[in-house]
Amino acid sequence: MLLPIHPPDPSSSLLDAVVAAGFQPVPVTDIDDVIERTPEDGWAPAVIEVQRDLGAAVALAAKISDEARLPVLLVIDRTLTGEIASESGIADFILSPIDRTELRVRLSRLGAVPEVDASDVLNFRDLELNLATYQATVAGAPSDLTFMEYELLRFFVENPARVWSREQLLAKVWGYDYFGGSRTVDVHVRRLRAKLGEERSSWITTVRSVGYRFG
């Protein structure tokens, strides 16, 4: 895991967030440091924390992308203003304060491989959810789930058998600050059933006038 912070900030929560997401950060100071310290198996994606100067960070990202051939993720303070051009060399970005789950998902999509142990894998029959990489497989075949589809399915697998109302699912999966209505849950359940396939769609049972039960 390559972690350029420009300028270096030892008090940053980004280091802790990267470690908590399952990655091993390697702080560097500039592009020369990146090139000189390149490990034998190469770097994973680069992460740049932007606290003050968005323009300088974008320029650094472009240099890393061009010279080191690395995908770059920006972590941007949400109080900063400015635009990022599509040709800037930035592969992705997130806003701070950092959501560690989102950080893990985005880094995994850019090719970083987190450390995985048995506790990072959930199983239900022939369904497997990898909590470190946010990958789902059904009968060994990968299932292309969106972030919220994955989160809803994960909640169901972790909390089977009991009935959950739509309001409870909204609060526990989407969060209390989510303003969407109960139809959001219905839409995601319908999509999950379709992606699980006809044989497994019955895992999610509709309880009339109440909500849904899994298992």
Q: How would you explain this protein's 3D organization?
A:
The structure is a single chain. This protein is an alpha/beta fold and 215 residues long. It has two domains: 2-109, Response regulator (Rossmann fold), CATH 3.40.50.2300; 118-214, Arc Repressor Mutant, subunit A, CATH 1.10.10.10. Helices cover 34% and strands 22% of the residues. It has seven helices and twelve strands. The protein has helices at residues 14-20, 31-36, 54-68, 100-109, 147-158, 166-174, 183-196, and strands at 2-4, 26-28, 46-50, 72-77, 92-96, 121-124, 127-130, 135-138, 141-143, 163-165, 204-207, 211-214. Strands 6-7-8-9 form a four-stranded antiparallel beta sheet, with helices on one face. Strands 3-4-5 form a three-stranded parallel beta sheet, sandwiched between helices. A hairpin with a 4-residue loop joins strand 7 and strand 8. The longest helix has 15 residues, at 54-68. Residues 3-8 have low confidence and may be disordered.
- Rg over CA atoms, rounded to whole Å, is 20 Å
Indicate the low-confidence ranges by residue numbers.
3-8
Strand order of the largest sheet: 6-7-8-9
Amino- and carboxy-terminal Cα gap: 38 Å
Question: How many structural domains in the coordinates?
Answer: 2
**SSE pattern, N- to C-terminal:** EHEHEHEEHEEEEHEHHEE
- Give me the number of helical elements: 7
Indicate the CATH topology of the largest domain.
Rossmann fold
Task: Tell me the CATH architecture of the largest domain.
Answer: 3-Layer(aba) Sandwich
Give the DSSP E fraction (strand runs of 2 or more residues). 15-25%
* Annotated CATH homologous superfamily of the largest domain: Response regulator
Please give the share of residues in helix: 25-40%
Secondary structural class: alpha/beta
Q: How many runs of DSSP E, i.e. beta strands? A: 12
CATH class of the largest domain equals Alpha Beta
